[in-house]
């Protein structure tokens, strides 16, 4: 079973649209898939941020800078991962 569709945003009642314990709002049981997806994302977060930061530094050293599409993609991903707005 695939996890609940992303992005996961809190609704007006403070709930995520995923299925951790009580069942999803669309009636499909995704508890195991949603729990596994959340665990995987949390456990991979720091390594992914570090890898993106290293890749960005390497691109800068090679002479690429702001305006280079890959740097822009990395910057957007890092902002998302760090909870910063772009």
Question: Percent helix among the residues?
Answer: 40-55%
Q: Average pLDDT, to the nearest integer?
A: 86
**For the terminal residues, how far apart are their CA atoms?**
33 Å
| Major sheet summary line | none
Tell me the fraction of residues in β-strands, as a range: under 5%
Global structural class: mainly alpha
Total DSSP helices: 2
What is Rg?
17 Å
Report the uncertain regions.
none
The overall strand count is 0
Element-by-element helix/strand order: HH
Assembly state: single chain
Can you offer a commentary on this structure?
α1 (31-61) packs across α2. The protein has helices spanning 31-61, 69-82. The chain is built from 2 helices and no strands.
Which descriptors apply to this entry?
single chain; 86 residues; mainly alpha; 2 helices; 0% strand; elongated
Please summarize what this structure is.
Helix content is about 50%, strand content about 0%.
List the helices and strands and how they pair.
Blueprint: H1 31-61, H2 69-82
Helix pairs in contact: 1-2
